[in-house]
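Reopening this ticket.

The earlier resolution said the output was attached, but the attachment link was broken on my side. Pasting everything inline this time so it's all in one place.
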Amino acid sequence: MMKILMSTSMLTSMTFTQMKHPLAMGMMLLLQTTMMCLMSGMMYKSFWFSYILFMIMVGGMLVLFMYMTSLASNEMFSPSNKTIMIALLLVPSLTYLMPSTINNKEMNEHNTMMENEITTTTTVMYNQTMGTMTTLLVLYMLLTLIVVVNIINVSKGPLRHTN
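Inline output:
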């Protein structure tokens, strides 16, 4: 599974350089983020970090999407045949070039070490003494969000008005 994700990630990275439309670039970036989150979740045996990374990236992508749709012209997006042919040729060759044998003993030791490290990290973050600090931090961020929402004026923003 990791081999497929790695080859697809390499393919999307190469395809990203060929894109010219901003919305297509955003879609490729979102696909790349999804694959990176899946790979990091599989490696660390905990998807919390991946979930947080994905949510932050999607939030940024929403802001970029709003600006691009309000500023970019209404040009049609059509993928070129050259990009499709390159993709069809690169996927099998990348899969063939990636090493297929991994030392299982080293991989098992690495996984055990990562599981212990994740357990230790989560225990330190959410133990009794840090619980109060975590709760205060969450409440502070919620208060900041409410204040920012009340301060902004939607009618004087940089985005185009909708009728």
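Reporter confirms the inline version is readable. The chain has one domain: 2-156. Residues 48-71 form the longest helix (24 residues).
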